[in-house]
Amino acid sequence: MLKSFSIKNYALIKDLHISFPSGFSVITGETGAGKSILLGALSLLMGKRADYGVLMDKGKKCVVEGVFGIDDLNLEDFFKKNNLDYEAETILRREIIPSGRSRAFINDTPVNLDILKMLAANLVDIHSQHETLELSKTRFQLNVLDAYIDKPEIPASYSDIFNRLKSVTTRLEKMIAENEQIRRDEDYFRFQYNELAAAGLDEEELGKLEEREKFLSHAEEVTRAISKANGLMNENELTVSGLLMQLLDSLMPVSDYFPRIRELVERLNSAQIELNDIASEISGLGAETDFDRDELEQVTGRLNTIYHLQQKHHVNSIKELVALKEEYASKLNGIILNDENIKKLAKEKKQLEKEAYRLAGALTEVRLSGGNKLAEAVTGLLHQLGMKEGVFKVNIEKYDTLTSWGQDKITFLFTANKGSDMKPVSAIASGGELSRLMLAVKSLITRKQLLPTVIFDEIDAGVSGDIAGKVGNIIKNMSLHHQVIAITHLPQIAAKADQHYKVYKETTRETAQTKIAKLDDGGRVEEIAGMLSDEKVSKAAVDTAKELLTQ
């Protein structure tokens, strides 16, 4: 329940604090005193968008704060899920700072507006004159019926299956579209893959081919060079090795007499060994220089194939060509996999559709049964509210296709007069009839809900006289199960309340401020008598006020 409500720097309110007990509280006041300002401030706690224009002092921030008792509402999981500190007395706060930005808090922890809205929706139900007009809308009527039936597990199960069906359908449609595009490109992908696969690409091949091509292109020069070197080393009468031997022969006899010559002889011996090894290798090179001109053509052709593929696909290496080949293979395999996935998703969609239609059927059944009970209950309340010939009916038609709320189209039908045709509620011209109908509906569905606080903003529009007292009785009965706060202009309703608050405007030369006061017994008599009078409060009005308060 709403325990207290504080407002600072909001519209005509400088600083205001109200405490609300349980039961039925009523708020009255002259037109323009600021009753709607109170409701506007409370709407900020419910998540309404903030407006910088509401700041009374544009240089200071506006603060609206409500203290709620929530210990019996089973909201611990909500607080845990949103990383909030759970308190039996929870504080909701909105701030509007001079820059125009707003901030929201739950128990002093900053939260985004959506989280504030979700929590507030579990705490307070504000019924305004605007919501009375909502009664004419099909979706609102559906929500009313489902709230009255009070079997949330059925619509919740249907909603879960419907959302899964919607998700699977979207994925299936996207997959089919992608697959169709891939199939249009399949011939292209297959040609490119086949060409790359046929090339038999090896990442190490290019360097070897380029080296081989370089040799084969200069093979004759290499052969001549090897032949000449072989002659110098092995075949001429005077070879390099032979000259070195002659040099050794001339120096060796005197090497024992001159250390420097001995060193040179050792070095020449080493050189002789190395030269003999080189001569042997040069002799063997001749066998390696044999070449076939056809091989040059083959190597050149192979290189041209690789260079062509690199140029065609705008890459610089065989590694990239191999990766590209694998990519085309993946796309071709994707066609097969997509076909399989499409079959699986199509099967899943069919199963979900079957389950969704089953649950939609279950929803229709409970709505048909609940609709009859709601119609009977609302009609009974309308009779209590002075509409003795009034009849209310819930008409249910079935769509062929599934919607987010099932297959049902709900229409509230009503007639105020015996023998008249039933017409949709949207055709009701009388504001008083619509207000009484809405009150009857609201009083029934709030019994089914756990919302601790219900606020009525002039639910009595278009109502007067004896009917006003009956409206007050229904609201009074609601307060046995909920905290009810009603903003009203009717004395008959005000007299039914457990607590009475008066909103008034205090005007000075500089400013006008909205204030609120809780009335004692004498103040209630005076206020209700004033509501019964024109300009001057008569003794008869005072007596009537006292009588209303004792009924």
Written overview of the protein:
By secondary structure, this protein is an alpha/beta fold. Among the domains are: 204 residues, P-loop containing nucleotide triphosphate hydrolases (Rossmann fold, 3-Layer(aba) Sandwich), CATH 3.40.50.300; 113 residues, no CATH class. The protein has 18 helices and 15 strands. The strands form 3 sheets. Strands 2-1-4-5-6-7 form a 6-stranded antiparallel beta sheet, covered by helices on one side. Helix 5 packs across helix 13, helix 6 packs antiparallel against helix 13 and helix 7 packs antiparallel against helix 13. The longest helix has 67 residues. The protein starts with a strand and ends with a helix. The mean pLDDT is 85.
CATH architecture name of the domain at 1-134 and 449-518: 3-Layer(aba) Sandwich
Estimated radius of gyration: 48 Å
| CATH superfamily annotation of the domain at 1-134 and 449-518 | P-loop containing nucleotide triphosphate hydrolases
Q: Give unreliable regions as ranges.
A: none
The shape is elongated
- Distance from N terminus to C terminus (CA atoms, Å) equals 27 Å
Summarize the main sheet.
Answer: 6 strands, antiparallel
Oligomer: single chain
User: CATH fold name of the domain at 1-134 and 449-518, please?
Assistant: Rossmann fold
Residues in β-strands, percent = 15-25%
- Helix content estimate: 55-70%
- Provide mean pLDDT, rounded: 85
Q: Care to count the β-strands?
A: 15
Annotation field: number of helices: 18
State the secondary-structure class. Answer: alpha/beta
Strand order of the largest sheet: 2-1-4-5-6-7
Q: Give the C-level CATH assignment of the domain at 1-134 and 449-518.
A: Alpha Beta
